[in-house]
Amino acid sequence: MSQAIIESLRSIGLIGSANARVTPLTGGVSSQILLIEDGARSFVLKRALPKLQVRDDWFADVSRNRYEQEYLRYVAAFLPHAVPRVLHSDDQQGFFIMEYLGAGYANWKKLLLDGRAEASHARRAGTILGTIHRRSWNDPQARRSFDTSENFYQLRIEPYLVTTGQRHPVLRHYFEQEAARIAQSRLCLVHGDFSPKNILIGSGGAPDGRMVVLDCEVAWFGDPAFDLAFLFNHFLLKALVHRQSPQPLLALVDAAWAQYTLQMSPDALEGLEARVAHLLPMLLLARVDGKSPVEYLHEEGKDLVRGFVADLLPRDPQSIESVIRAWAERLAASTANAPQRLFVPAPGS
């Protein structure tokens, strides 16, 4: 952390001593995230990086740090406990400070990788996501504040859809068509990274414990299908990790979707499920061969995803249930063929 930032924090009273401890936090590829502890006070500093920390060259405008702050403030107006509080921002130096939630929160991704699939967590996430989409639906303020198409292209459309399509020429036209469609959508506020790794669950457990959504720098006024497919995709990938007993993880899709639909109007739901079902297998493949691959799959698991998407995508699935059923059948067949082979998280994941 630069001396200029330290002095800035001292000037506003966030750091009061010369012995403040600064600890880098891990888990993301797009930002510098620091835990700052100053006596009894603890908070988190986040600053966007111009080049993301992945194998491919992946650059994005650091203005996304400001849009993340705006997302947190927008959602806090009606779901104050669902996002961390913003304590301070410095647009000139490109960072902001938010509350530190502490050790009493579990990362949902870790729980799922450990096989702890609780429907109550999925229902809570579905409620939060549906509430954000409903409250921002055709909202002129959100449309103006999150006119971030360029950022969304840099952070999601190009690395997930365009790149993956280029690496699979037979499927390329599906990815290109979907990329063009999404780029033109303007319906509600989209988180853009609504995945279990960005959701913390209070130790009280849902529904009593607090569930907090993080890392909203991809925020964009667009198609809600992206957030849903992005979340469901992670449930499918975790089911692959636990393919000998995948049903509890696959059931999370139904739990989240059912609760989400309760928040939305019939007009908003029209055509949404078909869009989610169409995008879901593309994002599944993107997490294997896009610019941001998951770190916990062995090569056999990656090949299983590739074969599944190549078979399913030309059939143009129209329902979420049809995708889940086809995936469950593929997992069952793979387990029968190699019953001793487990897909487990890589060391350190």
Question: What would you give as the CATH superfamily of the largest domain?
Answer: Aminoglycoside phosphotransferase (APH), C-terminal lobe
Order of helices and strands: HEEEHEEEHHHHHEEEEHHHHHH
The helical percent reads 40-55%
- CA(first)-CA(last) distance: 26 Å
**CATH architectural designation of the largest domain:** Alpha-Beta Complex
> Strand content of the residues, in percent?
5-15%
Mean pLDDT: 87
Count of individual helical segments: 13
Reported by name, the CATH topology of the largest domain is Aminoglycoside 3'-phosphotransferase, Chain: A, domain 2
Q: Low-confidence parts, pLDDT < 50 over ≥5 residues?
A: 56-60, 345-349
Spatial order of the strands forming the largest sheet: 1-2-3-5-4
Name the shape in a single word: globular
How many β-strands, per DSSP? 10
What does the radius of gyration come to? 20 Å
Main sheet record:
5 strands, antiparallel
Give an overview of the whole structure.
The chain has 349 residues and is of the alpha+beta class. The protein has 2 domains: 3-99, Phosphorylase Kinase, domain 1 (2-Layer Sandwich); 105-337, Alpha-Beta Complex (Aminoglycoside 3'-phosphotransferase, Chain: A, domain 2), CATH 3.90.1200. It contains 13 helices and 10 strands. The strands form 3 sheets. It has a 5-stranded antiparallel β-sheet with strand order 1-2-3-5-4, with helices on one face. The chain has a 3-stranded antiparallel β-sheet with strand order 6-8-9. A two-stranded antiparallel sheet has the order 7-10. Helix 4 runs parallel beside helix 9 (247-263) and helix 11 packs antiparallel against helix 12. It is globular, with a radius of gyration of 20 Å. Mean pLDDT is 87; it is low at 56-60 and 345-349.
